[in-house]
Amino acid sequence: MPELPEVEALAGFLRQHAVGAVVGRVDIAALSVLKTFDPPITALQGRDVTGAARFGKHLALDCDGLWLVTHLSRAGWMRWLDNPSPTPPKPGKGPLALRVHFFTPEGLTPAFDLTEAGTKKRLAVWVVNDPQEVPGIARLGPDAMAVTEAEFAEILGGTSARIKNSIVDQSLIAGIGNAYSDEILHTARLSPFATSSRLTPEQISTLYAVMRSTLADAIERSEGQDAARLKGEKRSGMRVHARTGLPCPVCGDVVREVSFAERSFQYCATCQTGGKPLADRRMSKLLK
Q1: What family is reported (predicted)?
Q2: Phi, psi values for residue 215, rounded to 5°
Q3: Is the N-terminal amide bond of 39 cis, ω within 30° of 0?
Protein backbone atom coordinates (compact mmCIF):
# COMPACT_ATOMS: atom_id res chain seq x y z
CA MET A 1 0.00 0.00 0.00
CA PRO A 2 1.33 3.47 -0.84
CA GLU A 3 1.96 5.35 2.40
CA LEU A 4 2.89 8.91 3.31
CA PRO A 5 6.29 9.06 1.51
CA GLU A 6 5.03 7.53 -1.73
CA VAL A 7 1.81 9.56 -1.84
CA GLU A 8 3.82 12.71 -1.11
CA ALA A 9 6.10 11.83 -4.01
CA LEU A 10 3.13 11.18 -6.31
CA ALA A 11 1.66 14.56 -5.36
CA GLY A 12 5.01 16.16 -6.14
CA PHE A 13 5.13 14.35 -9.48
CA LEU A 14 1.68 15.70 -10.37
CA ARG A 15 2.67 19.21 -9.32
CA GLN A 16 5.61 18.98 -11.71
CA HIS A 17 3.87 17.30 -14.65
CA ALA A 18 0.13 18.07 -14.45
CA VAL A 19 -0.18 21.53 -12.91
CA GLY A 20 -0.76 24.06 -15.69
CA ALA A 21 -2.41 21.50 -17.94
CA VAL A 22 -6.11 21.31 -18.78
CA VAL A 23 -8.14 18.19 -18.00
CA GLY A 24 -9.36 16.46 -21.12
CA ARG A 25 -11.38 13.27 -21.33
CA VAL A 26 -11.81 11.11 -18.23
CA ASP A 27 -12.21 7.40 -18.95
CA ILE A 28 -13.77 5.16 -16.32
CA ALA A 29 -12.82 1.52 -16.79
CA ALA A 30 -14.23 0.33 -13.45
CA LEU A 31 -17.39 2.14 -12.37
CA SER A 32 -17.07 0.73 -8.84
CA VAL A 33 -14.10 3.00 -8.05
CA LEU A 34 -16.20 6.16 -8.30
CA LYS A 35 -17.70 6.92 -4.88
CA THR A 36 -19.44 10.22 -5.74
CA PHE A 37 -21.86 11.22 -8.48
CA ASP A 38 -22.44 14.92 -7.82
CA PRO A 39 -20.51 16.76 -9.13
CA PRO A 40 -20.20 14.31 -12.03
CA ILE A 41 -16.73 13.29 -13.07
CA THR A 42 -17.36 14.98 -16.43
CA ALA A 43 -17.31 18.32 -14.55
CA LEU A 44 -13.49 17.99 -14.44
CA GLN A 45 -13.20 18.29 -18.20
CA GLY A 46 -11.90 21.63 -19.41
CA ARG A 47 -10.65 22.71 -15.99
CA ASP A 48 -7.13 23.94 -15.33
CA VAL A 49 -5.03 21.80 -12.99
CA THR A 50 -3.95 24.22 -10.28
CA GLY A 51 -2.42 21.97 -7.63
CA ALA A 52 -1.87 18.54 -6.13
CA ALA A 53 -1.87 17.58 -2.47
CA ARG A 54 -1.65 14.74 0.01
CA PHE A 55 -4.12 14.19 2.84
CA GLY A 56 -2.84 11.30 4.93
CA LYS A 57 -2.62 8.50 2.36
CA HIS A 58 -5.10 10.19 -0.01
CA LEU A 59 -3.83 11.76 -3.24
CA ALA A 60 -5.71 14.82 -4.50
CA LEU A 61 -5.64 16.83 -7.72
CA ASP A 62 -7.00 20.38 -7.56
CA CYS A 63 -8.76 21.22 -10.81
CA ASP A 64 -9.48 24.91 -10.30
CA GLY A 65 -11.47 24.33 -7.11
CA LEU A 66 -12.93 20.95 -8.01
CA TRP A 67 -10.94 18.10 -6.50
CA LEU A 68 -10.24 14.62 -7.83
CA VAL A 69 -9.30 12.57 -4.76
CA THR A 70 -8.15 8.96 -4.67
CA HIS A 71 -7.15 6.42 -2.07
CA LEU A 72 -4.99 3.77 -3.71
CA SER A 73 -5.72 1.20 -0.99
CA ARG A 74 -3.58 -1.95 -0.82
CA ALA A 75 -2.98 -2.72 -4.49
CA GLY A 76 -3.63 0.55 -6.30
CA TRP A 77 -1.13 2.72 -8.12
CA MET A 78 -0.80 5.76 -10.37
CA ARG A 79 0.94 5.42 -13.74
CA TRP A 80 1.91 8.38 -15.93
CA LEU A 81 1.58 8.02 -19.71
CA ASP A 82 3.33 10.40 -22.10
CA ASN A 83 1.52 8.92 -25.10
CA PRO A 84 -1.77 7.34 -24.02
CA SER A 85 -3.98 5.51 -26.47
CA PRO A 86 -6.69 7.77 -27.89
CA THR A 87 -9.10 4.84 -27.81
CA PRO A 88 -11.16 4.69 -24.59
CA PRO A 89 -10.37 1.54 -22.56
CA LYS A 90 -12.88 -1.26 -22.41
CA PRO A 91 -14.59 -1.43 -19.00
CA GLY A 92 -13.66 -4.40 -16.83
CA LYS A 93 -10.54 -5.33 -18.77
CA GLY A 94 -7.32 -5.63 -16.77
CA PRO A 95 -6.16 -3.56 -13.80
CA LEU A 96 -7.06 -0.13 -15.21
CA ALA A 97 -9.71 1.67 -13.13
CA LEU A 98 -9.58 5.26 -14.41
CA ARG A 99 -7.63 7.36 -16.92
CA VAL A 100 -7.38 11.15 -16.90
CA HIS A 101 -6.20 12.86 -20.10
CA PHE A 102 -4.51 16.29 -20.19
CA PHE A 103 -3.65 19.03 -22.66
CA THR A 104 -0.43 20.83 -21.73
CA PRO A 105 0.61 24.37 -22.71
CA GLU A 106 3.34 22.78 -24.83
CA GLY A 107 0.75 20.96 -26.92
CA LEU A 108 1.36 17.54 -25.37
CA THR A 109 -1.43 15.12 -24.49
CA PRO A 110 -0.29 12.96 -21.53
CA ALA A 111 -2.52 11.09 -19.11
CA PHE A 112 -2.37 9.22 -15.85
CA ASP A 113 -3.90 5.87 -15.03
CA LEU A 114 -5.18 4.67 -11.70
CA THR A 115 -4.72 0.90 -11.62
CA GLU A 116 -5.38 -1.86 -9.13
CA ALA A 117 -3.92 -5.36 -9.13
CA GLY A 118 -5.67 -8.43 -7.76
CA THR A 119 -9.31 -9.42 -7.42
CA LYS A 120 -10.22 -7.42 -4.32
CA LYS A 121 -11.05 -3.99 -5.68
CA ARG A 122 -10.73 -1.29 -3.03
CA LEU A 123 -9.30 1.65 -4.93
CA ALA A 124 -11.63 4.63 -4.50
CA VAL A 125 -12.12 7.93 -6.32
CA TRP A 126 -14.14 10.98 -5.30
CA VAL A 127 -14.97 14.24 -7.12
CA VAL A 128 -15.67 16.90 -4.48
CA ASN A 129 -15.69 20.64 -3.97
CA ASP A 130 -13.71 20.26 -0.75
CA PRO A 131 -11.41 17.34 0.21
CA GLN A 132 -13.01 17.36 3.67
CA GLU A 133 -16.14 15.94 2.00
CA VAL A 134 -14.27 12.64 1.60
CA PRO A 135 -15.15 10.61 4.74
CA GLY A 136 -11.64 9.19 5.16
CA ILE A 137 -10.09 12.65 5.03
CA ALA A 138 -12.63 14.11 7.44
CA ARG A 139 -11.66 11.44 10.01
CA LEU A 140 -7.90 11.96 9.76
CA GLY A 141 -5.87 12.74 12.85
CA PRO A 142 -2.86 15.05 12.67
CA ASP A 143 -0.39 14.26 9.93
CA ALA A 144 2.64 12.21 11.00
CA MET A 145 4.95 14.88 9.58
CA ALA A 146 3.09 17.78 11.21
CA VAL A 147 2.14 16.45 14.66
CA THR A 148 4.18 17.91 17.52
CA GLU A 149 5.88 15.70 20.10
CA ALA A 150 3.49 16.95 22.79
CA GLU A 151 0.47 16.10 20.62
CA PHE A 152 1.99 12.73 19.80
CA ALA A 153 2.46 11.92 23.50
CA GLU A 154 -1.10 12.98 24.27
CA ILE A 155 -2.49 10.80 21.48
CA LEU A 156 -0.61 7.70 22.63
CA GLY A 157 -1.44 8.37 26.27
CA GLY A 158 -5.13 8.35 25.43
CA THR A 159 -5.30 4.85 23.97
CA SER A 160 -4.70 1.38 25.39
CA ALA A 161 -4.23 -0.11 21.93
CA ARG A 162 -1.03 -1.86 20.94
CA ILE A 163 1.47 0.62 19.57
CA LYS A 164 1.47 -1.09 16.16
CA ASN A 165 -2.27 -0.46 15.89
CA SER A 166 -2.04 3.08 17.24
CA ILE A 167 0.44 4.44 14.72
CA VAL A 168 -1.44 2.96 11.74
CA ASP A 169 -4.83 4.22 12.98
CA GLN A 170 -5.48 7.10 10.58
CA SER A 171 -7.90 8.74 13.00
CA LEU A 172 -5.02 9.07 15.50
CA ILE A 173 -2.03 9.80 13.24
CA ALA A 174 -2.36 10.19 9.47
CA GLY A 175 -0.06 8.76 6.85
CA ILE A 176 1.62 5.67 8.32
CA GLY A 177 0.71 2.18 7.15
CA ASN A 178 1.84 -1.38 7.75
CA ALA A 179 5.25 -1.11 6.12
CA TYR A 180 6.60 2.05 7.69
CA SER A 181 5.17 1.17 11.09
CA ASP A 182 7.29 -2.00 11.00
CA GLU A 183 10.37 0.06 10.15
CA ILE A 184 9.67 2.73 12.77
CA LEU A 185 9.10 0.25 15.59
CA HIS A 186 12.19 -1.72 14.65
CA THR A 187 14.41 1.37 14.68
CA ALA A 188 12.84 2.55 17.95
CA ARG A 189 13.42 -0.96 19.41
CA LEU A 190 9.80 -1.28 20.51
CA SER A 191 7.62 -4.37 20.51
CA PRO A 192 4.62 -4.03 18.15
CA PHE A 193 2.53 -5.41 21.02
CA ALA A 194 3.58 -2.73 23.53
CA THR A 195 0.63 -0.87 25.05
CA SER A 196 0.58 2.71 23.80
CA SER A 197 -0.49 4.33 27.05
CA ARG A 198 2.21 2.49 29.02
CA LEU A 199 5.17 3.79 27.06
CA THR A 200 7.59 5.85 29.12
CA PRO A 201 8.27 9.50 28.21
CA GLU A 202 11.70 8.43 26.97
CA GLN A 203 10.20 5.74 24.73
CA ILE A 204 7.65 8.18 23.33
CA SER A 205 10.35 10.75 22.62
CA THR A 206 12.48 8.16 20.84
CA LEU A 207 9.50 6.85 18.89
CA TYR A 208 8.53 10.36 17.79
CA ALA A 209 12.05 11.17 16.60
CA VAL A 210 12.34 7.85 14.76
CA MET A 211 8.93 8.31 13.12
CA ARG A 212 9.93 11.72 11.80
CA SER A 213 13.38 10.65 10.62
CA THR A 214 12.17 7.41 8.99
CA LEU A 215 9.45 9.19 7.03
CA ALA A 216 11.70 12.14 6.15
CA ASP A 217 14.39 9.78 4.83
CA ALA A 218 11.81 7.91 2.75
CA ILE A 219 10.41 11.16 1.35
CA GLU A 220 13.92 12.29 0.42
CA ARG A 221 14.61 8.98 -1.37
CA SER A 222 11.30 9.25 -3.22
CA GLU A 223 11.58 12.86 -4.35
CA GLY A 224 12.30 13.18 -8.04
CA GLN A 225 11.50 9.53 -8.73
CA ASP A 226 8.96 8.92 -11.43
CA ALA A 227 5.84 7.01 -10.45
CA ALA A 228 7.09 3.77 -12.00
CA ARG A 229 10.16 3.60 -9.73
CA LEU A 230 8.56 4.50 -6.40
CA LYS A 231 7.54 0.96 -5.46
CA GLY A 232 11.06 -0.34 -5.94
CA GLU A 233 12.49 2.59 -3.99
CA LYS A 234 10.16 1.82 -1.08
CA ARG A 235 11.14 -1.87 -0.99
CA SER A 236 14.85 -1.13 -1.21
CA GLY A 237 14.76 0.96 1.96
CA MET A 238 13.07 -1.64 4.17
CA ARG A 239 15.05 -3.34 6.96
CA VAL A 240 12.43 -5.71 8.39
CA HIS A 241 9.15 -5.22 6.54
CA ALA A 242 8.52 -8.00 3.99
CA ARG A 243 11.87 -9.58 4.93
CA THR A 244 10.60 -12.60 6.86
CA GLY A 245 13.33 -15.21 7.29
CA LEU A 246 16.17 -12.86 6.34
CA PRO A 247 18.77 -11.63 8.84
CA CYS A 248 18.11 -8.42 10.75
CA PRO A 249 20.59 -5.83 9.43
CA VAL A 250 21.22 -4.60 12.98
CA CYS A 251 21.81 -7.76 15.01
CA GLY A 252 21.74 -10.64 12.53
CA ASP A 253 18.79 -12.44 14.14
CA VAL A 254 16.14 -13.77 11.79
CA VAL A 255 13.28 -11.42 10.93
CA ARG A 256 10.03 -12.92 12.18
CA GLU A 257 6.41 -12.48 11.12
CA VAL A 258 3.02 -12.28 12.81
CA SER A 259 -0.02 -12.86 10.60
CA PHE A 260 -3.60 -11.89 11.27
CA ALA A 261 -6.64 -11.65 9.01
CA GLU A 262 -5.34 -10.48 5.60
CA ARG A 263 -2.25 -8.75 6.95
CA SER A 264 1.09 -9.53 8.49
CA PHE A 265 3.88 -7.59 10.08
CA GLN A 266 7.58 -8.24 10.58
CA TYR A 267 9.90 -7.59 13.50
CA CYS A 268 13.19 -8.63 15.09
CA ALA A 269 12.86 -10.39 18.43
CA THR A 270 16.38 -9.51 19.53
CA CYS A 271 16.01 -5.80 18.74
CA GLN A 272 12.40 -5.36 19.82
CA THR A 273 11.10 -7.97 22.25
CA GLY A 274 14.08 -9.00 24.36
CA GLY A 275 14.58 -12.12 22.27
CA LYS A 276 11.07 -13.46 22.84
CA PRO A 277 9.11 -14.34 19.68
CA LEU A 278 5.60 -12.93 19.54
CA ALA A 279 2.63 -15.28 19.34
CA ASP A 280 1.51 -15.95 15.78
CA ARG A 281 -2.03 -17.31 15.78
CA ARG A 282 -1.61 -18.72 12.30
CA MET A 283 1.33 -20.85 13.40
CA SER A 284 -0.42 -21.80 16.64
CA LYS A 285 -3.33 -23.23 14.66
CA LEU A 286 -0.99 -25.21 12.43
CA LEU A 287 0.75 -26.78 15.41
CA LYS A 288 -2.46 -28.02 17.07
Answers
A1: Belongs to the FPG family.
A2: -70, -40
A3: yes
